[in-house]
């Protein structure tokens, strides 16, 4: 039973940089929690502050209900995996894995059985006598994970653990990590700048910018309803369309955009108000405009180009001079020059303040 409660946390470096800038966050017991944000937004600093490797300047960190804000790292019950793994090159895999136990003076016989068991859990059987330099990147990454797990922390902190692996290994390691976390049920905070990784792995995602939390939610929520254009831009493998628009009439339920219109829940936004209209390529429907009109709000345009994404295609449509991206099944990919009509369901059309 080990959740993490963070309240009003700030971490200020001696040079005055507020790398973590007033953060409230609760990670539930057993949760796989992702911290997502661009490089320099404070992810590593937050993780290191939870671990006790940086001092909190303001606020508190509680682990498993106990205030650990002023505790030294070794007494917090956390295990951290660093981005560069930080393995000891002169020690064997077995010695690396059990190093934290050796520090705690656990007997050699116990250490070697822990090494055997953990190596089994992390598919490192047969490699226990090797040095880190004799392992592949993926194996080194698993040794770093094994060392963290063998230390029997209550909380696992992972700083971009997959970022040094090549694309294929990364996907394998991602699946492996997800299964391992499920099996162990250990509370895990996973730092990444890769939105696809966060969406794939996490129970919940916190999106950070400039040391602050911008959005907290399930992968589904953060993907479908980003709270502002920063989050909207950051999440999704194809970028969200962010278009200049205006409210047609406050009770019309529509916004004018790119020479046409889309349905939107305009609520109390006044008539004529300028907004940024956000709609994901995946949520737009493209129909080939033959004859007749589409009922309800729609945008007309002409296909410019289509990119193959594997089983789907990202089609760029020129709508009165604005390019709009739409994903369609690969077999429905229209030819360049085809006149088309774009529509979207109201709940998929998001309105943002112009300046957000
Ligand atoms: P991320 O992990 O999201 O890339 P970091 O936590 O590493 O971000 O850095 C957050 C901010 O703090 C950046 O502006 C970075 O330059 C600054 N920073 C990181 N480490 C230090 C340090 N030891 N001293 C001063 N500033 C630092
Ligand atoms: Mg970092």
UniProtKB/TrEMBL annotation:
Keywords: ATP-binding, Cell membrane, Membrane, Nucleotide-binding, Translocase, Transport. GO terms for cellular component: ATP-binding cassette (ABC) transporter complex, substrate-binding subunit-containing. Residues 4-235 form the ABC transporter domain. Coiled coil: none annotated. Pfam families: ABC_tran, TOBE_2. Gene3D superfamilies: 2.40.50.100, Nucleic acid-binding proteins, P-loop containing nucleotide triphosphate hydrolases. One of its GO terms (molecular function) is ATP hydrolysis activity. PANTHER family: MALTODEXTRIN IMPORT ATP-BINDING PROTEIN MSMX, TREHALOSE IMPORT ATP-BINDING PROTEIN SUGC. This is ABC transporter related protein. The lineage of its organism: Bacteria, Bacillati, Actinomycetota, Actinomycetes, Propionibacteriales.
């Amino acid at each position: 039973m080990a959740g993490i409660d963070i309240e009003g946390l700030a971490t200020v470096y001696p040079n005055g940089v507020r790398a973590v800038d007033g953060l409230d966050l609760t990670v539930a017991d057993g949760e796989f929690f992702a911290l997502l944000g661009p490089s320099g937004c404070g992810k590593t600093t937050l993780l290191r502050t939870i671990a006790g490797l940086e001092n909190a300047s303001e606020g508190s960190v509680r682990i498993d209900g106990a205030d650990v804000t002023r505790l030294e790292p070794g007494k917090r019950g956390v295990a951290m995996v660093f981005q560069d793994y930080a393995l000891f090159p002169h020690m064997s895999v077995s010695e690396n894995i059990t190093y934290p136990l050796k520090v705690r003076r656990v007997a050699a016989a116990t250490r070697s059985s822990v090494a055997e068991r953990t190596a089994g859990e992390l598919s490192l059987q047969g490699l226990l006598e090797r040095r880190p330099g004799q392992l592949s990147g993926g194996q080194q990454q698993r040794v770093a994970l094994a060392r963290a797990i063998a230390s029997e922390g209550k909380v696992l902190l992972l700083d971009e653990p997959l970022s040094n692996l090549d694309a294929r290994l990364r996907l394998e390691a991602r699946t492996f990590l997800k299964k391992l976390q499920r099996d162990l049920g250990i509370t895990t905070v996973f730092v990444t700048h890769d939105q696809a990784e966060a969406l794939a792995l996490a129970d919940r995602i916190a999106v950070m910018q400039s040391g602050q939390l911008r959005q907290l939610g399930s992968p589904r929520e953060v993907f479908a309803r980003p709270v502002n254009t920063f989050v909207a831009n950051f999440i999704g493998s194809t970028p969200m369309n962010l278009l200049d628009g205006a409210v047609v009439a406050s009770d019309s339920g529509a916004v004018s955009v790119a020479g046409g219109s889309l349905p939107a829940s305009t609520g109390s936004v006044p008539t004529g108000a300028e907004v940024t209209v956000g709609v994901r390529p995946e949520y737009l429907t493209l129909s080939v405009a033959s004859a007749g009109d589409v009922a309800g709000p729609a945008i007309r345009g002409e296909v410019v180009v289509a990119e193959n994404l594997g089983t789907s295609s990202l089609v760029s449509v020129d709508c009165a001079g604005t390019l709009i991206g739409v994903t369609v099944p690969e077999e429905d990919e229209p030819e360049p020059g085809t006149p088309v009509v774009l529509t979207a369901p109201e709940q998929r059309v998001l309105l943002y303040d112009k300046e957000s």
